[in-house]
Structure formats: structure tokens, C-alpha cells
Design goal:
- The relative contact order is 0.15.
- About 50% of the residues lie in helices and about 15% in strands.
- The protein is of the alpha/beta class.
């Protein structure tokens, strides 16, 4: 009988937490656009590129198509000592573009991507900084929407950065993880517990960046140029916002192999060990209660009622994905939602143990 009561308690706890997160997401949705003015701030767009010869031309082409006056933004591409033809491609592509420049990261003060970005920010002419990655493709109103949020008064802003779901399992899984993680990171801002931001669509005031010491206080790992910088912003009680407009999405491709996927997840998880205590508690409890609810299906053999947390969780997951997937740049079929959700939860544990097996590097 006690296990039945425990099952009801677990189900009730999961529902309370799920509703809490859902309310956080809805709160953040309500903030969008209502008070934003469409203004053309002077922006400095910074991209760190290392061995990106396959992507850099496409990125530059997409930046040229942005719906933003050329005289109101500069693009600084920092070549981080690439060993391929990245620098050559950048030079040939920007030679006739007045608002594009390239910098070589020969003398970085910090290791990895942070060092390259820091150099770009140091050379930026304007106070409003926008960050993206070399393998991304932003939608045409990306800069306009990010500028509006910064003009509203936010110190740090991040947008939605969907991963394109291809045809392979690893591509679909990566895209689904991106959807679930985007939902949670946005909800966390609404709940005043921001913990993560996508570096593919990230913006801040240069003055705010300098007030928290730039990347100098985020050197625990090579990764974390987004999350750990956000951690410092939270620590310094700065104002953090989101941009959720579809015309401001920044797309990128999914990992092509599971090896690439596991390396990427290792970098992300390593960063999470350096979150603030309240951020760790929020994430830890959320993932733990979800995993326990998922595993409750194993008890259905003894009694169907013991699988109640699993049933409630699956219904909640379907509700969230179906309701918000298109608003977050994704589209999954019903059967895909079912198996990808289960894989997503299981791989959280797998990726945790994978984290213990070696060091990370910035390309």
C-alpha cells in the first residue's frame, strides 16, 4: 500500500513542477514585443571562426541578407588560427564589404573560443554586441529583434537557435534535444532562474560585459562562453531577456555522427558543473523527477497503477512539444515525439557518464 501512496506523491510532485515550468515559459512569452521598439542601434557582430572553410561563405552570405542598415552594424570575424582555408575564404568574401573586417587571433589573452571572442569584443566600435557561430544561418530580422530587446534595457539577451532535423537518428535526436532545452531555458528566464543561453544567438551591452569582468571569471572550462557569462550576469543581478520571434531564429546543422554528438554534449555538461547552486538545484530536480517518472513504467509489471507517473509525464511531454515545437523552429511527427522523448531522457544519464571519460577542446 505504501508504494501506491509513493506513486501518487511522485505523480503529484511531477505535475507541480511541470506546471511551474510551464508557467515560467508562459510568463516569458508575455514579455515579447509588448514594450519593444523597432530601432536600429549601432551593433558589433562578433564571430569566432576556427577551421570553418565549409561554413564561412554561407554565413557571410546570410549576414548580407539581414534586414538591417549596413551603416548601423559592423561584422568582426576572428580567425582563431585556422589550419584550413578559413582565413583565405573570409578575405576573398569581405574584400568589397565596408562593414566587415577580419582579425587574426595571434595573441589571445584567454584560451579557446573565449579568447577569440574577447579579442573581437575588444576591437568592437559599438556598445551593443551580438554573438553567433560560424556555422549558423540567421533569419532576416535577427539583428532588428535583438536590437529592440537591447534597446528595451536588457543587459544580456539570447534568442532561439533551432537545430535543423535531418534524416538520421542523431540529427533528429539533436534537434529534439534542442527543442526541449530551448523550452526549459526560456521557462527558466520567466522563473528568474536563467542558467543557459545559446551562443548562436546571444547579445549584450559591452559596458555590462566589462562590469562583470568579461570572460575572465569564466575560465573554469574551455566551453561556457555563453552559459558561464550568463552565470556572471545572474551573479551581478543584471537584467536578462529573450527574443522569441521566428524572424529572429538562428539555425544551425545537427551533428552528423554520434561521436560528434557525444563530444558536443560533453562540452555542454562540463560547463553545467560550474553553474550557481540555485541553477544546479533547479536543473537537478527537474531532470531527476523526469527520469524517475520515466522509469516508473518498469513497475507496471507489478501493478498498472505504478506506471501512473510515466503516463502523466508522456502526456505532458506530448502537450509541450505539440503546442510549442513550431514556435521554437521545429516539427516532429507524433511517433517521433514518443521515441525521441524517451531517448532524450536516457541519454541525459549516458552523457553524464561520458563526461567522466576525458577532456574537452575548442576544435
Amino acid at each position: 500500500m505504501e508504494i501506491i501512496y509513493l506513486t501518487y506523491f511522485l505523480t503529484f510532485t511531477f505535475l507541480l513542477l511541470a506546471i511551474y515550468v510551464y508557467k515560467g515559459y508562459k510568463l516569458e512569452l508575455k514579455k515579447q514585443i509588448l514594450s519593444f521598439n523597432k530601432t536600429f542601434l549601432k551593433l558589433s557582430l562578433i564571430i569566432a571562426a576556427k577551421n570553418e572553410e565549409r561554413n564561412i561563405n554561407s554565413l557571410i552570405d546570410s549576414l548580407e541578407r539581414l534586414n538591417y542598415p549596413n551603416e548601423n552594424f559592423e561584422v568582426i570575424i576572428v580567425d582563431d588560427n585556422s589550419t584550413d582555408r578559413t582565413a583565405e575564404f573570409i578575405r576573398s568574401n569581405i574584400s568589397e564589404k565596408n562593414n566587415f573586417i577580419m582579425i587574426r587571433a595571434d595573441k589571445k589573452e584567454l584560451e579557446g573560443k573565449k579568447g577569440a571572442l574577447s579579442l573581437g569584443i575588444k576591437n568592437a566600435k559599438y556598445n551593443f554586441i551580438i554573438i553567433t557561430d560560424a556555422d549558423c544561418k540567421p533569419e532576416i530580422d535577427w539583428l532588428k529583434e535583438m536590437a529592440s530587446a537591447l534597446d528595451y534595457g536588457y543587459d544580456f539577451v539570447f534568442g532561439v537557435a533551432p537545430i535543423k532535423a535531418g534524416n538520421t537518428l542523431v540529427e533528429k535526436l539533436s534537434a529534439f534535444e534542442n527543442l526541449r532545452n530551448s523550452y526549459l531555458t526560456i521557462a527558466a528566464v520567466g522563473l528568474s532562474i536563467p542558467y543557459s543561453a545559446a551562443a548562436r544567438s546571444f547579445a549584450f551591452r559591452k559596458t555590462s560585459f566589462e562590469r562583470i569582468g568579461g570572460y575572465a571569471n569564466t575560465t573554469e572550462t574551455l566551453s561556457g562562453d555563453d552559459d558561464l557569462l550568463l552565470r556572471e550576469a545572474v551573479n551581478n543581478k543584471m537584467l536578462i531577456g529573450t527574443v522569441l520571434e521566428p524572424d529572429a531564429f538562428v539555425y544551425s546543422a545537427a551533428p552528423k555522427t554520434f561521436n560528434e554528438y557525444f563530444q558536443q554534449k560533453k562540452r555542454h555538461l562540463q560547463t553545467s558543473f560550474h553553474y550557481l547552486v540555485k541553477q544546479k538545484m533547479f536543473l537537478g530536480f527537474w531532470h531527476l523527477i523526469n527520469l524517475i517518472a520515466l522509469l516508473s513504467i518498469c513497475l507496471a509489471f507489478f501493478s498498472p497503477i505504478l506506471a501512473l507517473p510515466f503516463v502523466v509525464k508522456i502526456f505532458y511531454d506530448f502537450f509541450v512539444v505539440i503546442k510549442y515545437q513550431q514556435k521554437l523552429g521545429h516539427s516532429f511527427k507524433l511517433y517521433e515525439i514518443f521515441y525521441l522523448q524517451i531517448l532524450f531522457e536516457v541519454l541525459i544519464v549516458v552523457n553524464f557518464f561520458n563526461l567522466l571519460s576525458g577532456n574537452n577542446k575548442w576544435k
